[in-house]
Amino acid sequence: MNHQSNTLSPRLCSLALLAACALAVTGCGSGALHNGVSDIHDIAIPSLQGKAFGGQQAIGGGVVQLWTVGLPSTGGSYGSGQTSLISSTVTTSTDGSGSFDITGDYSCPSNSYVYITITGGNSGGGTNSAIRLMTALGACANLTDTMFINVNEATTIAGVFALQQFASATFGTAGSFSIGAPSTNITGLQNAFAAANNLVNFQSGAIPVSTTNTATVNSVAVSVVTTSENMKIAQLANILAYCVNSADQSGGALSTNCSTLFNAVQPASQVSPAVDTLQAALDLAINPTNVGSTTSAPFNLVSAQPPFSPNLGSTPPNDWTLGLSYSSPTSFTTPAYKFMSNGYGVAISSTGNIYVINSPGSTTGNSVAVLGPDGMPVTSILNGSTLGSPRGIALDTNDNVWVAANASTTNALVEYAGGSTYNYNSTGSTVLYGIAVDASNNIFVTSSASGELEELVGGAGAGTVTNVAGIGTGAEQLAIDTNYNIWIANSTSGTVTKAGATCTSTPCTYAIGNKVSYTSLASDFGIALDQNQVPWVTNSAAGEITRLDPATPIAGGTSSAASLGGLTNPLFVAMDGSSNLWVTNNNTTSNSVSEIASGSTTMALSPGTGFKHTFATPRAIAIDGSGNVWVANSNGSTSTTAPVLTEIVGAATPAVQPLSRAILLNKIGKAP
Q1: pLDDT tens-digit profile of 294-328?
Q2: Which of 49, 83, 553, 570 has the greatest number of CB atoms lying within 10 Å of its CB?
């Protein structure tokens, strides 16, 4: 999450991230960039029609502009490089309809992504210079003359929240707002546009309670239901409407409503307040704990008759982060299993596809569901009885899928690559749990029962998973650094073990050393490395997260305060591109995710209850290249109230996926 001052550009850029759609089970979202960024010729220009509204009131005389986001071909980076496309002046109609028509007024590079803004105008009460609304349209190549565009406060909230990691503004400067991405994260930008349309339908301007995506998977029509937090989106839209549906004071000064709103959403670290509603929406997105209970707090800045409903009414939200939840009613018969059920693990491909372990049984009904970044069902893999009690999932640098199972030494590790399944036996334990892949695509798994670290060298399509080091019983999750060292959390002993690597080439040899026995470690389970390759571990029983100090490995470490940022039985942890930690609170009562800033001292970025969304005992967690946080729910079912997968939209700094590529590119805990 972004916490910067007056000029806010969420992220820096670095090495290239693979964006090709290489595997049969991976797919690019709509509007691919034609080989990345090389194809920049203009395409045939469709005419675009739409309407602009402030709440339910048409905006007349607003200036219409179409923007192509900043890409490498235009000097783009995170939050910069965008270009206006309309050279002439186009305004919304003053006849009470708020309509606009863009015909032959722009040229559009075929590789570009575009959004539209309405600036200024009159929503019925008089001219308002603080109006600035947007709608995220997506790939310019996908625009058609049959497409109708609505621009209102709800589409503005959807676009800003989904694209916040690619947006920046110099607050206090009129018209300052920009969206851009570096060459290393075009895929993340593309998928963020898809998320915006999941929140609000830009063609109707409506806030859906849910949408259903259907595709044929294994000869069966599979449906995935995406459920939104529609009432929270409506409340945010009503907050913007509080300003939009007002008029400038005499002499052109901002209306009292607008200046009150802009001051209310301004964080203490920001030098100047917003000067328009687009900047105000960005303030709300990047400061989601600023809800407030006073009459001048953002939550209460709505009109007596708010235009968007249903909304939150008089009940403040826990926070402003926006969630989407995913469930599926579809079942298969041969073999018998559900497309989505009991989410035990989650992993993300380089193209942004989401892989979810479904683990409802010990030997039957288990599978891996694959969804596109927009929630569209892609395929179902590893289904049937060969996948026994799957617990861990990881992708190698080629997006091949690896799953650790703990029901038997037979088929203890399963691979899916190029449309084929490969099974590997374990020479040791029947209880494989954690799994990780190093930069050379060696596969490592932990055995919780026998206390072993096991390896499959190179993932060659044949072989046996063999023991390489004894690490103590209760071995759970593991993390690998760029020097091939492996860090393992041991929940039974309350320790963290480092398997130090000695490498002339891979496979490396491993020696157990630097075993951390820190007194505050209690039922440590999840582990992740920050950008300095310092390990952080969750202490479930103590409700803490601990930063280990590699320089003093025997007793070195600093634990957070108990319950910091809502930590309650913290289980899995993921590191975003700013090395902030995102932690699942695996508790049926708390059902939340915490965000903790890493560093020598810990600081909560989530509220005291954590971020609250529709979870069903949250378990595994991963962060994609758009900054979306994905959570697998172990008690998830076919019900929309107990989803298998939950997404927190755009709230984290984008991260390189899969994690094996982050290791390869030296991008652990760093943005793409």
Answers
A1: 888 999 999 999 999 999 999 999 999 999 999 99
A2: 570
Tell me the C-alpha distance between 327 and 12, whole Å: 34
The count of C-alpha atoms lying within 13 angstroms of the C-alpha of 327, restricted to the half-sphere facing its C-beta, is 20
Which distant-in-sequence residues (6+ apart) come within 8 Å of 328 by Cβ? 222, 223, 224, 225, 338, 339, 340, 369, 377, 638, 644
What would the two tokens of residue 170 be? 């110099």
Distance, CA of 596 to CA of 579 (rounded, Å): 9
Nearest-10 Cα torsion for 33, 35, 39, 40: 40
Cα separation of 262 and 264, whole Å?
5
* 646 strand-pairing partners: 325, 631
| Angstrom distance (rounded) from CA 424 to CA 409 | 9
Q: 40 to each of 115, 178, 191, 367, 391, how far by Cα in Å? A: 18, 20, 20, 41, 44
Q: In what helix (H) or strand (E) does residue 382 lie, and over which residues does it extend?
A: none
Question: What is the 3 state secondary structure string of 37-92?
Answer: CCCCCECCCCCEEEEEEECCEECECCEEEEEECECHHHCCECCECCEECECCCEEC
Whole-number Å distance between alpha carbons of 455 and 437: 10
Query: Between the CA of residue 153 and those of 48, 52, 59, 134, 367, what are the distances in Å?
Result: 20, 9, 12, 8, 41
Contact between residue 442 and residue 436 where contact means Cβ atoms under 8 Å apart: no
Tell me the two tokens of residue 253.
């000064």
- Global pTM reads 0.92
CA pair distance 384, 50, nearest whole angstrom = 49
Contact in structure between 462 and 456 (CB atoms under 8 Å):
no
Residue pointed to by tokens 């806010």: 8
Residue closest to 395 by CA, chosen among 575, 663, 617 = 663
Question: pLDDT tens, 69-110?
Answer: 987 766 668 998 899 999 889 999 999 999 999 987 788 877
CA atoms within 13 A on the CB side of 467: 16
Question: β-strand 132-139 against 331-332: which pairing, if any?
Answer: unpaired
